Amino acid sequence: MVEESGKNNMLTKRIIPCLDMTEGKVVKGIQFVSFRDAGDPVKLAEIYDKQDADELVFLDITATVENRNILLDIVKKTARKVTIPFSVGGGIRTVEDMRLILKNGADKVSLNTGAFKNPNLIRDCANQFGNQCVVLSMDVKKIKNSWNVFINGGRTDTGIDAISWAKKAVSLGAGEILLTSIDRDGTKKGFDTSLTRLISANVTVPVIASGGAGRLEDFLNVLTEGQADAALAASLFHFKELTIKDVKDYLFKKKIPIRLV
Amino acid sequence: MIGIIDYDIGNVGSVANALRKLDVSFIVSRDSNVLDKADALILPGVGSANGGMENLYKLKLTEFIKNEILNGKPIIGICLGMQILFDSSEEGNTKCLGILKGKVKKFKKEKKIPQIGWNQVIIQQYNNVAMKQFNNKFFYFVNSYYCIPEDKSIVVGSTKYGEEFTSIIQYKNIFATQFHPEKSGQIGLQFLRNIINKWTEDTSEVAQRDSSDGGGIGKK
């Protein structure tokens, strides 16, 4: 359901490109775009900024201690270039990790495995920097009839139910949830709208849907039926199969509240 | 030169980056002797009202900020930096700077809280800052609380999130926004440029503690 169709004077749904990085390079096939610019997250971020993305997400998918400095350098350079908010995630274990990332110019930090292993990290980070800074990133996969939370980059099944973890994280201070469907990630079969709706209906904070974007209709579905507040995609935008403008123009025509510049 | 007040509450770096993009000279400081030399101040802030006030007290900046405003220095409040200019906030039942009369309240529960994302500003009055061009433009908001000024004449812009709330105020040498112009794309930069280049130079009125024009400052 569209809560109030129309274009005027309401909070708009966000379209968010995601840059998955390893060793300071954007992965997911971005190398195919152009050799010179390939894999440079700062340049990609600038391009998305100019295309009126509503926000940017950086995820350091290997997140080893050794490449933390590369990440910080990228965060700093990106912050100097872009004019829109961006969040950074990957390997954050302590309040100090988060402080460093924010200090280098990120607006939000997403916590995943670190928060699962030590839920108080959410509370400590929220107390320190405010709820709006703390994004709970959760990777979820359907196991028989339940939705389980996976950690360690989607490799480890925690056996914990996604709804209860989402609720707990919000009660501890997470201000937003970045929800990725492992089943749909990279498949282009569409977002998992049932999972997204389930989580969105059970928490009081905004939910960003991730995993599976392939067609324009997928965005419409997850923002209406899925009750998502924002939709995230990676390879779709990196490969230029769809531009951010394509998605936004389409949604606008479908009467979804969208920011057109 | 603009002085950005650094009180350990979030987005100081984002504001600095925005001023860099605008080629405006600035200093970031928590030292009143340094900030004193600035032509105008920016009070940024994300996070909680209680945390923000606590830090301002710790850094001994509350009286400094009040005095600077009463002495006529232009100040720009952003987000939490707008909220703490008022008397009090529901967030942690916090007594704020009390420079402007009014309260800060939480959004009603039927909406997702915090409000995160781009929302439109409805300009309520076209004053000396050429605000007209920003009517219905989108700005980036991140807030769970909003200001309710006692004096409605200071409301320059409002925004709807379930209820309609005040998103821009101006009262003499005080200008403040609930949204983050420093994170609102090109339009946000243009907005900041307008305030910094035009308003801080043009404003000659000074907020008075005992103003008799119904303004907002302080307690009578």
Task: Reconstruct the topology from this structure.
The complex is a heterodimer of chains A (261) and B (220).
Chain A: E1 14-22, E2 25-26, H1 41-50, E3 56-60, H2 68-81, E4 86-89, H3 95-103, E5 108-111, H4 113-117, H5 120-129, E6 134-143, E7 146-151, E8 156-161, H6 162-172, E9 176-181, H7 193-202, E10 207-210, H8 216-223, E11 230-233, H9 235-238, H10 244-253
Parallel strand pairs in A: 1-3, 1-11, 3-4, 4-5, 5-6, 6-9, 9-10, 10-11
Antiparallel strand pairs in A: 1-2, 6-7, 7-8
Chain B: E1 2-5, H1 12-21, E2 26-29, H2 32-35, E3 40-43, H3 49-58, H4 62-70, E4 75-78, H5 80-83, E5 86-89, E6 94-95, E7 100-106, E8 115-120, E9 122-123, E10 138-143, E11 145-149, E12 155-161, E13 163-171, E14 174-177, H6 185-202
Parallel strand pairs in B: 1-2, 1-3, 3-4, 4-14, 5-7
Antiparallel strand pairs in B: 5-6, 7-11, 8-10, 9-12, 12-13, 13-14
Describe this entry's structure for a reader.
The complex is a heterodimer of chains A (261) and B (220). Chain A is an alpha/beta fold and 261 residues long. Chain A has a single domain (14-253), classed as TIM Barrel, CATH 3.20.20.70. Chain A has helices spanning 41-50, 68-81, 95-103, 113-117, 120-129, 162-172, 193-202, 216-223, 235-238, 244-253, and strands at 14-22, 25-26, 56-60, 86-89, 108-111, 134-143, 146-151, 156-161, 176-181, 207-210, 230-233. Chain A has an eight-stranded parallel beta barrel, surrounded by eight helices. The longest helix of chain A has 14 residues, at 68-81. Chain A is globular, with a radius of gyration of 17 Å. Mean pLDDT of chain A is 89; it is low at 1-7 and 29-38. By secondary structure, chain B is an alpha/beta fold. Chain B has one domain: Class I glutamine amidotransferase (GATase) domain (Rossmann fold, 3-Layer(aba) Sandwich), CATH 3.40.50.880. Chain B contains six helices and 14 strands. Chain B has helices spanning 12-21, 32-35, 49-58, 62-70, 80-83, 185-202; strands spanning 2-5, 26-29, 40-43, 75-78, 86-89, 94-95, 100-106, 115-120, 122-123, 138-143, 145-149, 155-161, 163-171, 174-177. The N and C termini of chain B lie far apart (33 Å). The relative contact order of chain B is 0.17. Mean pLDDT of chain B is 89; it is low at 209-220. Classes of the chains: A alpha/beta (261), B alpha/beta (220). The interface between A and B is large, with 36 and 41 residues.
